[in-house]
User: Fold these one by one.
Assistant:
Number 1:
Amino acid sequence: MFARGLCREKSIKIAKFKSAVIAYESFFLYLLIMVKESAFDLHDPIVALATPWGESAIAVIRTSGEDCIKKIAGVFKGTDNLSNKKSHTVNYGTLYNPKDGELVDEVLAAVYHSPHSYTGEDAVELFCHGSPAALQKTLKLLYEQGFRQADAGEFTLRAFLNGKIDLTKAEAVNEIIRAKSDKARRLALHRLAGSIEKTINSFKTRLVDMLSALEVMIDYPDEQYEHNEFPPQEFKKLLAEVHALLATYKAGRIYQEGVGVALAGRTNSGKSTLFNLMLKEDRSIVSDVHGTTRDFIEGSIAIKGIPVRLYDTAGLRSTDHPVEAEGIRRTDKIITNADIIIYLIDGSLGVCGEDEKFINQYKSGGRLLVVWNKCDLSGKKVPKAFIPISSLTGQGLQNMEKAIVFLLLGSSPLESDGPVIDSLRQKQSLEQALAALKRVETGYKNRVSYDLLAVDIKEALDAFGHITGQVTSEEILRAMFSKFCVGK
Amino acid sequence: MDFDAIAIGGGHAGIEAGLALARLGFKTLFITQNLDCIAKLSCNPAIGGLAKGNVVREIDALGGQMARLIDSTMIQFRILNRSKGPAVQAPRAQADKAAYALLAKQTLEQQKNLSLFQDTVVDLICDGKMKKIKGVVTERGNRITAGVVVLTTGTFMEARIFIGDYMTSSGRLGEPAAVGLGESLRKIGFEVGRLKTGTPARVLKSSLDFSRLEEQKGDEIQLPFSFSNHRIERPHVPCYITYTTEATHKIIRDNIKYSPLYGGKIVGIGPRYCPSIEDKVMRFPDRGRHQIFVEPEGLNTEEMYLNGISSSLPEQVQERFLRTVPGLERVVIMKPGYAVEYDYINPTQLYPNLESKLLQGLFIAGQTNGTSGYEEAAAQGLLAGINAALKLQKKKPLILSRAESYIGVLIDDLVTLGTKEPYRLFTSRAEYRLCLRHDTADMRLFSKGYAIGLQNNEANERFEAKVEKLNAINELLHKRKVDTHDISAEPLLSKYKGKTFARILKDPAFTMSVLKKLDGALNDFSAALSTQIELDIKYAGYLKRQQEQVARFKRLEKLIIPSEFNYDSAKGLSKESREKLKTIRPLSVGQASRISGVRNSDIAVLLVYLTKKSGA
Ligand SMILES: Cc1cc2nc3c(=O)[nH]c(=O)nc-3n(C[C@H](O)[C@H](O)[C@H](O)COP(=O)(O)OP(=O)(O)OC[C@H]3O[C@@H](n4cnc5c(N)ncnc54)[C@H](O)[C@@H]3O)c2cc1C
Ligand SMILES: Nc1nc2c(ncn2[C@@H]2O[C@H](COP(=O)(O)OP(=O)(O)OP(=O)(O)O)[C@@H](O)[C@H]2O)c(=O)[nH]1
Ligand SMILES: [Mg+2]
């Protein structure tokens, strides 16, 4: 349906993995969960990119759902309020961020009123510039307005439920999704999809074991039990693992949507040289004149599969020149919004007061990386905290990239090929499970009774069940009777 | 037509069914093999226990008989699991078996509209198309017609009992099996299977060495099961505890080849949760000892029941291993333990109202449906009786939900999942057990019993008065605030100054008894009532979460699948699921989703067709 694969190797892997997991049970499963879970109703506003990721002339972002037009109207500046536009009109305008008024993109917005849209709901299609950087910004803006990332097949599902297409057509769509996952399987991606299932199932089995220990004590009150059968240590371990899996959501999103990386430093520290090196393209002007770069320049690259918007910025120094001052103001803003700041120190000069000031200001944010540039020149010993690189020779670049990934993902769960979640639904289910498990933990500490502990354990099991299938009471009983000798 | 209704079988299922039909005004025939063997407690002399105690109270709330029978015949009472949580406490009583059976028989005899008759049913009369039941044929050649029939054959249909090498056609030691009906049912097209269960030896009280047994007393206060009784004054008789020894286990291991089960004579499947002592020893070789409860069978008998040690080994072996148990060194066996194997009907052949899919008007209940246990049997008997009556009245069936009763869990499990081993209720089978406390059974079900007509106006007034009182306590606790007076009486309450009594109850450190000392008005209410409110308040957080789960559960339950729904036309269903759905014919998407092997994607396909139909 929505080819959202990123054109970098790892990203493609992740995107396929995602469709393999989600399409696994097709959009029908989604319907089921929506009926059961109030968290996902059938009408909330959703958004998805309808054209492939990557550089292209035009990209289409599709939205649908309640208040969808109103929500976009709130960030759309055109000749007239978008909410007042008739159905099936195409409107030129700009998207801007209401928080700071910043221009996000120039777009054409096609407005469809319910029921005259593909889904039968209010819908807007945005025709935007097809650069990943711009798209990422636009999507981020829409998430901030309350749109949710659509699941695979969800637009078609809604179309079906609203009577816009008939079942044969819906089935055909389902087939496509299925076929996609078959292909994914052929591409040996099944292993990835399987690994999350395996992990969740292991959570479930272990939890069922713990629950059955409580249940047997409840249902056979007259039996004698050697000790309290509930294992707090194992439980703690489980809790930590759930936590870790949940943490991969961030990684999943990072691979999906990418990050912004800003190059900062004093004038002449080598930012533009580094920018060109990373971009593998001679894009930014390099010269030994201080203050060469006046306005920021951006480019898209991938670092170990992570889509990155890279910004070269104006060098930081105090200046009276109004143009340069404006450039520095823009630099500040980019630095503020960046996920990662790479701060360059001119290694031939060493650390100066301004560098120290900058480092001190940002070092606690968890997004600052300080590199010691021109390490080919300086005879100075590189202080330990800095990564030595040479933007001229490319020396140290690998190390820097590793450091960036580390800063984003920690001990990089993706490197270890463990399971990763990147669907919102999985994340919400895991959060629900984690919250329930934490209640079990405090409950156990406060010695609440078994029946109450069981409520939360079951809630956690149910939440896991939303990802890989419900645990039945028969499974709990089986665990009880295989482990305990009880009865008349 | 000779009768409006026929109830076959004098067990716990049959008596509830017969009574319900007669009480609802239908001329009913109660037919059983032997009128002197009515409502027998075939196995352990106790009613209630985990989940089962709740069922007894649910039966009472709906207007059934079991709670009243045990209230009048108990000889010991206990609330189990006091320490394990409010939702899993349950009442259990030891019964005087003979008194229980006698009272049941008297109740039946005195029931208006009910005729008791001794004979064995061997065949069913159907209409020409074999679609509808018309009546029954008995062993002595009687042909009796009726509009509806409730079948409860218990452990008797084509039954055989086993003790070592000994095998005979019998449903309970000393009582002949009901032969013929199983064959007829197979011919009509029912899927009939075999199950087995077993019972331990009964021994002579005076042969026991009580100095070597540990006494287990009941609770001081005996509480009624029935909501219509206020207090119970019955004798208190203790039980005793002892343990098997390594010597016991050795004898069992050495003689295991003589076990009809291990020797392969029994084909029926036994319950995992109620293993015989042979099973325990063989399956858990590391356990050094197994617990035995020695329970009285009644006030006027010397028979004692040995709970925990059911066996079908040869009688001599039983005697030898029993004599290795402390306190049982000179034990005299009065009745040996034995195993029984019998026909059952896979309950997926029934609708949730317990009516058979094959034969309209035929309702099946009790052990015949693959359950075991008196309470499970009685609950089904009551519901089958009620639904048979509702059918005669051409009214909508009574189907209890899993979220409102253990009976709902029981019947839904049976008709949706079927069973391959004797089915017993556990609290863990219920997803929402916090909502199924035994003390709230009347809150959950009384109005249904009243609407059907099994509860009279007097009972209704009593119920309404109770609800009023509960509201009054609740209000008092939410209004009454902690003042300086209270604090001087109970200094620990100082941190709750100005807070309501209800707030204090949320603190695990304080109970209602503390509050009762502070405010006399609380003493105007019975302990049962104030405890009920106390639990509601104390566990409100958990209850709320559970109620949210229930709300989610109900969404799928509310999606009704029309009875004429054509599964063959639903493209996209997997073949396996289609077959299962066609056999079970679930009433709702919720029920469909619980059928084993039906996958999420199939449920979703179903949803798609159903939502389409409703024009969404
Ligand atoms: C040996 C043994 C071991 C048991 N072990 C356990 C246990 O471990 N745990 C447990 O919970 N429960 C156990 N029970 C089961 C318990 O007794 C039953 O679950 C319960 O009594 C079932 O009630 P019911 O009404 O279904 O059938 P029953 O109590 O068996 O009653 C059936 C009645 O129907 C009559 N009947 C049968 N067929 C016909 C016919 N064709 N015509 C006329 N009358 C007929 C019989 O005479 C009998 O009166 C055991 C029972 C036995 C016999
Ligand atoms: N030897 C050496 N020279 C470098 C290195 N990086 C940059 N230079 C030189 O340093 C000078 C400044 O480089 P730029 O990339 O323009 O520096 P900048 O930080 O972008 O400067 P402004 O745009 O003025 O802020 C140029 O002459 C580069 O060739 C390096 O790693 N080694
Ligand atoms: Mg520059």
Number 2:
Amino acid sequence: MTDPLGQQRPIDIKAQLQACRSKEDTFKTLVMLSKTQPRLTAEEKTEDNKIKGCESAVWLIIEEKDGLRHFKADSDAKLMRGVLVAILSLVKGKSLADIQQMDLKAELAELNLSSYLTSSRTNGVLAILDKITSH
Amino acid sequence: MVFDPTSLRPLFPILSQPAYDHPLVYLDNAATTQKPLWVLDAIQDYYRSFNANVHRGAHFLSDRATNRFEQARETVARFINAPLQSHVIWTKGATEAINTVAYGLEHLLEKGDEILITSLEHHANLVPWQQLAFRTGARLRVLPLTSKGEWEEEYARYFTDRTRIFAATQISNAIGTSTPLQVMLDLAKQQGAFTLVDGAQAVAHYPVDVQALDCDFYVFSGHKMYGPTGIGVLYGKNHALEVLMPYQTGGEMVRHVSHQATEFNVLPYRLEAGTPHIEGVIGLAAACDFLCTQDRLALLAWEQSLARHVYTRLHKAGGIELYSPEKNTTLVSLSVPNIHILDLNAYLDSQGVAVRAGSHCAHPLMAQLGVAGTLRASFACYNTMEEANRFCDVLLEAIDLLNEE
Ligand SMILES: Cc1ncc(COP(=O)(O)O)c(C=O)c1O
């Protein structure tokens, strides 16, 4: 499994997660998704790029090109990398205005993810969503 | 005869439910234990048959509530062998008990005095002392461990004639290590320091005798010893409790109030402002009763055998860093190189196994051990050998799964 992130279409990720019938399935799917994302370099893992409020370390870099947002992310926990792949598949390549229109929490719930995350890690996810939707 | 934990299972109905599609395996007992029917029934009974405010009304229910409430104090006093029930102060937990002491002793501290703790402390027995030091200009000192989690030989030099307070945990919640309390308490007493023992992780496992320990203060939480949440105990020697300035004031703790002045009540009420957590007190006494009907040393031996079994299996499996002592502990604390503990935790959870991954409210200790956190499986009397093995099996499965690239 070495598909770069770009080749995983959102629909695939969504379908894969929605097909999960148990927590164990979701776990295994997230671990698999985690492998589809290139890791950040040590230089990219700055304090500035780090998201506060996550139990695991999470870094998120936002790049704007022609008014569209592109993301790079990493975490020291595999599962969180999988979650990041899922979240970013929803928003990548969209404009900030479009992203702000989305109900990301509801979309994550559709992916079976809200129940999967413990509340303390959900808080971490909220911090990620905040960064994704902010200027 | 070997202790049989299955004889206790019917007392803990919560444990017989499935978690997702798996049998629930509850190994997060150091965070909080489950409650036996003794406790659940006592709380129900309180609300069904004698709910009233205590020490106030002169009526049928209030008398009953007050009697049972004060009987509970006697039960807890006996449970820790406190000489007098007025030396048992109700708090909302170990945390509030420690804060009561930290604020209560503030008026006796001067700049340059020393407060000594150990590097094993839970934040609850660290932050209140650190903040007290900030407020008073006292100095917080920390008895170190070696990087292996063992005690340094030369800790005597940390006890000086400026040591005013020595506060130490009996057992580490994060790695299960016991402190050599008796030696340390003696050193502290030789310097005339107040001594506080954090028994939060001890009371569920060890018979506690505060007179034998001979500390000034002993604190614990009900919810870690099969009792309800929101109730805990501050035990103190008479002179030690008497010097505490009440850090909360209000009703119950007063004898006479005018707009000009207030005369405080006697112990234990002086340190118990406001309507107490009556149902919690009743529940805690029931938890003590439950434990007192058990052969406590047999329970302890069983819990230790579970921890030791897990330790031995995981040690043999290899590739796992174990932070808890090999023997005489009731928990196993570990990490696996290159695998995040939250990933391990998530897989264990998906299989119905409840453990704790994190820093266990002990950031400085984790820093000293050189890890961000550990995965902790902590045992209680109702855990079975199958559950211990299930934890090992699922953990090893998780490691395999997370290791493959
Ligand atoms: C050693 C130790 N001390 C203090 C506490 C604080 O207890 P509570 O949160 O019930 O006040 C804990 C709880 O985890 C503990 O393990």
